[in-house]
Each structure stands twice: as structure tokens, then as C-alpha cells.
Amino acid sequence: MRRAFCYSIPALAVLVAGLALAADKKDKPRKTGPAEEKRSESPQLPAEMARHFKDLDRNGDGFLQRDELPESMRDNFAKIDLDKDGQISPEEFLRGWAHFQPRRRPSDLVSILIEMSDCDECCADELQEMYETLHKVDKNGDGKIDADELKAAREQIASARVKRILKVLDSNKDGKISREEARGLVRENFDKLDKNRDGFIDHKELMYAATERPQTLPAGKTPLPGTKRSEQSEKK
Questions:
Q1: 146-167 pLDDT, tens per residue?
Q2: What is the domain count for the chain?
Q3: What is the CATH classification number for the domain harbouring 76?
Q4: Structural domain boundaries enclosing 96
Q5: pLDDT digits (tens, 9 = 90+) for 107-144
Q6: Which residues of 11-25 are buried (b: 16+ CB within 10 A; e: fewer)?
């Protein structure tokens, strides 16, 4: 009996020590590393983004490394990795979602119209109108639109717009718009439009405003990909 009682004392000590250790772990928060802290602070991604993130995260560590991204997305890795730790967290993924989308160009409108239209007849009419407009721009009929043809077409469209403005605002039909005749944006920008400061806006001044193009891109703007200006900026 005494031997059994002696054996029970070490066993009871181990049990008590185990319970104390468990309680101590419960009371003291577990230390987490930077990666775990970063993961715990990450926002809940929308369902579509969450699925995409999970598909890309091949090693399942909750972050995206550069080699886990498709090659088409790797060029933007540095822009998305905001804290520069070499991996993309769900929060960075959410904030940089736009960089994962293919960059759209105005010419994509044709493909979108063909693919997304729910009315083939309406879509065909719109595409036919586009085709006829482009066909008119191609003055020499070589099947291509060069810079000179584009400039001429732009000036023709601007001239037609200017004529409509003059017809509406030039009430006394003297071929120019006075400050009293001006309305809307023409009135708001009258002093800018009136280049010679004679108190009137004529056809030439309206054409200048309608066809003026900035020589340099505004700050923060990027040229369309694939254009000559884009190629020049990439060389720089």
C-alpha cells in the first residue's frame, strides 16, 4: 500500500505540472512571427478574388511569391508588393487588383461590342457605322489609316462641330459669337476662347480650341500601350 502511494505521488506531480503548463499557455498569448501577424491582419477578400488568390498560392502559405504569378503579371509585382517584403499579402492583392487586369485600349471596343452584344442586329448596325466611318477616313483607299488621314478626319469633325455651335449661338448671324450670345461652356470659357481679345469668338478661334492637342502628357498620365509615344517613353 505504501509503495503504491509512493508511486502515485510522482504521477500526481506530473499531472499537476501538465495542467499548470496548459493554463500558462492559455493565459499567455502565443508569439507570432511577422508573416503570421501580417496574415492575421489581412482583410477578407471578395469571393472571386479569394478563389483567384488561392489558385495562385501554390504552396498554400497565404502569400504570393513572384514565381507563383503568371509571367504576364510579374512585371507589376513590385507595384503590388507595397511593403517590399518579397511577397504579396491578401491586403496587397486586394489593393493592387487593378494591376492584375489586362490593360484596355480604345480599339478593344470593337471586340467588346462583338462579344458582349445581346442583339446581333443592333451590334451589326453599330459595327457597320464604325466601318463606314473608318472607310471615309481612309482617303487613298489603301486599307490603312495613316497619321495625315487621321488629322484630316479630326479637323473635319471639329469643323462640323464648330459650325453647329455658331449656328446655335450666333443669333445675329454675323459669323461670330459675342459675350451676350455665348451660352454654357462657351460662356464659361469665353476669355480663354477669345484669343485676340476683340470681345468675340469666331470660327478660327473655335477651331483652335477644338483641335488643340497638348504637346506633353499631363503628370501622372501614361501613353496608350503600343503607340509611338508609349514606345518612346519605354526607351527612356
A1: 999 999 998 999 999 999 999 9
A2: 3
A3: 1.10.238.10
A4: 41-100
A5: 888 888 888 777 888 888 888 999 999 999 999 999 99
A6: eeeeeeeeeeeeeee
| 35 closest CA partner among 61, 13, 10 | 61
In a shared domain, residues 148 and 198: yes
Q: Determine the residue type at 198.
A: D
Does 18 reside within a domain? no
At 102 the pLDDT is 67
Tell me the C-alpha distance between 229 and 13, whole Å.
80
**Letter for the amino acid at 87?**
Q
**List of residues 6+ apart from 88 with CB closer than 8 A:** 63, 64, 65, 77, 80, 81, 96
Chunked mean pLDDT (size 10), the chain, 236 residues? 42 42 46 50 77 91 92 86 93 85 76 82 88 92 92 91 94 94 93 94 92 61 48 48
Handedness of CA 58, 63, 64, 67 (dihedral sign): negative
Cα–Cα dist 189/202, whole Å: 14
Q: Where are the beta strands (DSSP E) in the chain?
A: 176-178, 200-202
